[in-house]
Design goal:
alpha/beta, two-stranded parallel ribbon, 10 helices, globular
Length: about 250
């Protein structure tokens, strides 16, 4: 396993399965974010692909969000903005992809991980897949992922998660629209994902492309919006509050 994380893609029966991983609970450093955005974009252009499945490696956390190691190393605004632009690139790649993106969530999702599953067109999860937006505790906020989360679950649920940054369990997440289905085990989840992806892959690519454009109507300005949000996070991440929080968090591990 690459200690810096990686992204892999497998195409079979018109289904592109994209898997990202990182040894730190599938955290997302800048290199993984940019490779993930590029891989999703390329899958969208591939005529051999009718549907995309997004998943993470392992059988525990789906995604721990932003890499703390990278966050604590940021010392200037351009670097900070550039890091958070990685999340913007992934969300916009998922939004613009002309193929439906199905997200498979096997475990907990934090911060940017919640943004990823929110930007998917259809998300299935296990009962262990709690969600948490912890950014405010870090001295920043869920600014870049916010539009995707708010679009998925509405302003009320997004505000609740952002302000009261506790864990919310899979049933809560399903009731609010994060998940279209939750399953008892990873094995059951995988069967459901395979069946649904196979079903979608058999549909008309042209019809799915048109339907996706309809369901994402009103987000055409997100290239600019998410960049402006990355600028906010890129500025706030330089604060002493954020540096001290991350340092204390890492020392407690």
């Amino acid at each position: 396993m690459n200690p810096n994380g990686d992204v892999n893609i497998k195409i079979e029966n018109k289904i592109a399965t994209i898997e990202f991983y990182h040894p730190s609970s599938n955290a997302l450093p800048g290199n993984v974010l940019r490779k993930l955005a590029e891989t999703i974009e390329n899958a969208g252009k591939n005529e051999l692909v009718n549907v995309v499945v997004l998943k993470s490696g392992g059988d525990r956390a789906f995604c721990a969000g932003a890499s703390f190691d990278e966050l604590i190393s940021i010392t200037d605004y351009p670097t900070g903005k550039n890091f958070f632009m990685g999340f913007a690139l992934v969300i916009n790649a998922m939004r613009k992809c002309p193929k439906f993106v199905i997200c498979r969530v096997q475990g907990k999702a934090v911060g940017g991980g919640v943004g990823l599953l929110s930007a998917a067109d259809y998300t299935l999860a296990t009962k262990y897949s709690s969600v948490k937006l912890s950014e405010l505790a870090l001295g920043i906020g869920p600014f870049v992922v916010g539009p995707a989360v708010e679009r998925k679950v509405g302003t009320s649920a997004f505000s609740q998660m952002s302000i009261d940054y506790d864990w919310y369990d899979a049933n809560w997440a399903k009731d609010r629209g994060f998940y279209s289905g939750i399953y008892e085990s990873i094995e059951e989840l995988d069967r459901a994902v395979d069946e649904f992806a196979t079903k979608m892959a058999a549909n008309s690519p042209e019809a799915m492309k048109e339907l996706k454009q309809v369901t994402w109507a009103g987000t055409e300005h997100w290239d600019e919006l998410l960049e402006s949000r990355a600028e906010i996070s890129g500025r706030l991440v330089l604060s002493n509050f954020t540096k001290n929080y991350i340092k204390q968090f890492k020392e407690s591990k």
